[in-house]
Request: fold
Amino acid sequence: MIDDRIRTQIATNWQAVKDEVARAASECGRAPDDISIVGVSKYVAADCTLALVDAGCTRLGESRPQSLWQKAESPGNWTGVQWHLIGHLQTNKIRRLIKYQPIIHSVDSRRLLECIANESIAQKLTTSVLLEVNISGDPSKTGLSPDAALSLLEHRPSSGVNVIGLMAMAGWGTDADESRRQFELMRQLRDDWQHRLPFDLSELSMGMSGDYREAIASGATIVRIGSRLFEGVRE
Ligand SMILES: *Cc1c(COP(=O)(O)O)cnc(C)c1O
Reply:
């Protein structure tokens, strides 16, 4: 059980993040409602995650598939939660994961996309996914190269998956200007690819606690915010 202080802190943080995201949107002439906030709950246990849901955050992001299903299967009212998987996914975890109908942000290979499609078809589901693109140019970072991402978009599986957008992370240790440059690049690639593709590629998942302002200014439609939500909770 968590105490009232923590519960109040989480509610306060959630409201502050919502206000900050709305302000960042207005500052660049965007409607606050056009940006979805995924509360990244990977830092905390199920009780604190439920406190975040109670505060009004219904989109939850987890890095590890096991943590996602453990929370989804734990006692508590998770109805109305849209799960997001934002970290690496191994193919042997797909079966158990997709019955929770998460949006998967981290598709980084053709094989993974095909396995998600096949398993979704077997479970009579359609899974929404984003392709993770490596825009930092750093080969040690995860994600598809832009060329590989475009090729996968052009030759995606015809059923079982819905590719709804792209996910990107700025490289480590980048300053605000460099993050913004990378996010702008992602946005330009998306706009360019959208012209060539017969389906809607509207979601851009980019921006975390430290760089969501730059991401929103560059066109992010989904920001993934973790640490900022749990300030004063995790010590
Ligand atoms: C942990 C994580 C986040 C959240 O990062 P914070 O800096 O804590 O907001 C966002 N995206 C991914 C892929 C992550 O692994």
Summary: The beta strands are 36-40, 59-62, 82-85, 103-107, 127-132, 161-167, 203-205, 222-225. The pocket of pyridoxal-5'-phosphate is lined by residues 40, 42, 63, 86-87, 169, 208-210, 224-228 (CB under 6 Å). The first helix runs from residue 4 to 27. Helices lie at 4-27, 46-55, 65-73, 94-98, 110-122, 146-154, 176-196, 212-217.
